[in-house]
Design a protein that fits this description.
two-stranded antiparallel sheet, single chain, P1 Nuclease, mainly alpha, globular
Length: 313
């Protein structure tokens, strides 16, 4: 019973401090649909509501599956002092660090690759339900990889006396400002090496960790403590969170960082969907409905086994 309770509490805290936020994840998946080429866009537009709503399924699974949280982040500093020293491929990485260490630190780039291969297989067998499921999940993981605080063990400022900065950066700011972001990004492009591309996203996110933390710390010195947070009504409840004035100031000093990562997320999600379809042989999807498909789960085949999660508890 204690183990179950701890798992549920851990999952709750993860949800509380993680991810772009439900609004942002849905917006990213929805926006990605409109970057697809016409032939593929027809299928995605037809199912846009489901793909948008399922964008948060991966976060919901954190409540019930203790193996899910590590798929959303990677604490680079817990693996190696130099990100470029970490092997890109799972097998070589486990040989250097062990599976247990990697799983404890998070596996998001490998999870992106795994989900991508699942989507390719779903396209090949023209399984409408699995195409939607893996498209939504892939969009979620790719979006998470764009968040700087998903690449460090100081994910919520707990090591620098900045508790709450995680949800501040990736939930509060997008909810306030995303409606003003320019999402006219261009069309999806082919991703030649999905795993390497996922690592490149993580590397770029990781370079921003210091700015995310340092700029907020410096900004807090220019505000009276009583002006940093305020009670704001959400879902008919008063919740203490960062004030509008402080959020606006932080968004300004970040100088477009959140918008750039948001836009990059949208383009990357669309590009991975498009590339999976290309790699599957560009199947015709016109006739797919909600009743077709296989019952068995599709497993990834790009050199990543079950990640030893059975032993990780």
């Amino acid at each position: 019973m204690n183990k179950i309770l701890i798992t549920l509490i851990t999952a709750f805290l993860y949800i509380l401090f993680s991810s772009w936020g439900f609004y942002a994840h849905k917006k990213i998946n929805e926006s990605a649909v409109f970057l697809l080429p016409t032939e593929l866009a027809i299928f995605y537009k037809k199912n846009i509501k489901e793909i948008t709503n399922k964008a948060i399924d991966a976060d919901k699974r954190c409540y019930t599956d203790s193996l899910e949280p590590p798929r959303h982040y990677i604490d680079i500093n817990e693996i190696d002092d130099n990100i470029d020293s970490i092997p890109v491929h799972w097998r070589k990485a486990t040989e250097k660090y062990t599976e247990r260490k990697l799983i404890a630190a998070g596996i998001i780039p490998w999870q992106i690759s795994r989900t991508y291969q699942n989507l390719v297989q779903a396209f090949k067998i023209k399984d409408r339900n699995k195409i939607i499921r893996y498209s939504a999940d892939l969009g979620h993981y790719i979006a998470d990889s764009h968040v700087p605080l998903h690449t460090t063990s100081n994910y919520n400022g707990q090591q620098t006396n900045q508790i709450g900065i995680h949800a501040f950066w990736e939930t509060r700011l997008p909810e306030m400002f995303a409606k003003h972001y320019n999402l006219f990004i261009g069309t999806a492009s082919y991703v030649n090496k999905p795993l390497e591309a996922a690592w490149e996203i993580v590397r770029k996110s990781n370079t921003m960790v210091d700015s995310v933390l340092t700029l907020e710390k410096e900004l807090s010195q220019t505000f009276r403590p009583s002006d940093i947070k305020a009670y704001i009504e959400r879902n008919n409840q008063l919740i203490l969170m960062y004030s509008d004035a402080y959020a606006t100031a932080y968004h300004d000093v970040l100088n477009g960082m959140v918008e750039r990562r948001f836009r990059s997320s949208v383009h990357a999600v669309s590009s991975y969907w498009y590339s999976a379809w290309i790699d599957a042989g560009q199947p015709k999807l016109n006739s797919l409905d909600s009743t077709n498909g296989l019952e068995n789960e599709i497993e990834a085949k790009e050199g990543i086994k079950s990640l030893g999660r059975q032993e990780w508890h």
